[in-house]
Structure prediction request, 754 residues.
Amino acid sequence: MIWLTWRQSRGPVAVVAAALAVLAAVLAITVAGLSQLANTTSGTAFLNGLTSLDSTLYTVGAAAVLAVPGLVGVFWGAPLITRELEAGTHRLVWNQGVTRTRWLATKLGCTGLLAMAAAGLTSLLVTWWAGPIDTAVDGTTATVGFYFPQMFPVLFDTRGIVPVGYAAFAFTLGVTIGVFVRNTLPAMAATLGAYLAVQVAVPLWLRPNLMAPVTTTTPITMQNMLNITGNSLNVASPAPGAWIIAQHTVDTAGNQVGMPSWFDGCLGTSNVGACVGRLTSLGYRQVVDYQPASRFWTFQWYELTIYLALALVLGGFCAWWVRRRVS
Amino acid sequence: MTYVLRAHRLGKRYRQRWVLSDCTLDIPAGHIVGLVGPNGAGKTTLLSLVSGMLSPTAGTIEVCGGRPGSGAAQLAKVGFVAQDTPTYARLTVAEHLRLGAKLNPRWDDALARDRIRRLGLDPAQRAEKLSGGQRAQLALTLGIAKRPELLVLDEPVAALDPLARREFLGDLMESVVEHGLSVLLSSHVVSDVERVCDYLVALVASRVRLAGEVDTLLATHHRLTGARRDPSRLPAGQEVITVSHTERQTTLLVRADTPVHDPTWTVSQPGLEDLVLAYLTRPAMSGTDRSALEVAR
Amino acid sequence: MIEFHLDARSGVAPYLQLVHQVRQAMRLGLLRAGDQLPTVKDVVAGLAINPNTVLKAYRELEHDGLVAGRPGVGTFVTRTLADSTVAAHEPLRRELRRWLAKARRAGLADDSIEALFITTFRTTMGEDIA
Prediction:
């Protein structure tokens, strides 16, 4: 059964392995220059010293880690059962001497593990390569170029161990959707859609609440004021590498308020510093809810556990369905 | 006596429609069983229930003494060659044999290789490049080499040309002699099964209309031709299957356990195809006589 | 070794066709005592018929004392029928010639003579078997 699983999946696996090899080669070329720069400079100076190639590779690397689970779900997961159903070969292979449960368990287990390994390897490569950049970004509250702290929504997905969980989930999601949709191409499309939906929903609703955010009250200064959207003011991160969940302005009494009416007009006329100073003197402060950078690994483990649990549930459902059904 | 298939009031419903209903069969081992009936009668459903691909909605089924699909031991007892003989297009013939070897505990590799060699199949050839007859032979090899007690084939020769058809059936018969396995094969063409089967089950509109050994069926059914008369006045023990009248003549197909000696009838022997057709066109019985028309040995 | 063939449309049961073919071969001297009949496996592979048909035919021949089965080896002819040549039935032959002359004098054409003979033959043989 393991031989059969390998024989049936060796094409797609080879493709992913080749792509990984290319990525590794590309990253390896630049890693020397990067570490040398890290030895001589640090912090914002380091970040400013990065070339446009480094910036491109940073983005490419992140994209690769993001892509692997999705690709695995769409190209390994969705066709796993649907292709057998479409070709009718399930009538051949389910009438040999292995039970359907064992057939599915081996296919899910072996290919799933390969998927997790692929995602894990990609993440390992990219996290290792971007190490110096991440350290520098997490050490400052300033924003330089297109580099973001690891806690930030999209970047969080491309570092550490969560991609392993994403791959496991995307893969079993693909198999499960295939079980319902029964046709390969629609199943692939549906898997992509469902996976993207989950990946958008999790940082939006789940991740901020994994642990109660830290709340801090900070005065509004020229240094930390970022912008004004509508009637709300936004300040920069109070702690380096932190992920701001929500913030609002409060008055002296502690009630949440919008910008006072005179502020807008003030900005248009005299210097901004005076306006901000007046705000502070009137007792306006900013309350910021954030997740600190120190929680990065805790969150990684939490999310990994959740995604792996989801994958197990989906896998169990598939096993039940395969046993129960079909001709 | 060992039974290869025992079904009691077996039924399968699929989305509000009963595709198989009230099937009761007791088929002994050591036979080549033909399952005939028009398309849509439920043949594939019955075969899927036998192989364990489907599970029953009503009634019970026992195959080679076990419940279909109930584990590796049961799977080893039953070989199944599905309609259109599915094979893995991108796998070679040799890889299919390897699949069989890896997935079947009782796999007879020498037998499989010998068959492939005798059939003239190239082991390195991909299944998608084989002709229909060659694919059917490959699927049959996989079914036979796993050494089952019962081999189930769903319309195995429907898509084959006459030569491939003859070779396939000849090969199948040879394997039956060599390995002593029972066979259950379905076809919607009665003449295909007439040559090869010694036990017949006729399925029409989801019900079993006829089941029994071919010799007994032929011996106990008679075509009576004679002057026009009322068929209800026949003696007891003679059951009318079909009636047809012309102006002056009545033709009956009757089932009788004893020979018909009435000199006013000309008695002749219907062929198997005529017999099956008679049961196919006979209106469904109602009331207490719903059970299969099983002819005892 | 003889080769069997089957006429699916003849209306005669397959096993009887095999029996007749063996008898015919024996009568024509193609099969003599000691010759082996084709194995069940070979017959069945060539004709694509049920093995029980062949077994039934061989059993009937054995019952008639014409063949004997040796387990593990095969089925062998035990008698030579070619001796029962036409010459041994000369009286029957003469009677038949007289009857044919009578039929021709009665005005029957060749076809009618043949039809009369075949239907009478079949009915009589059928009565014997039934």
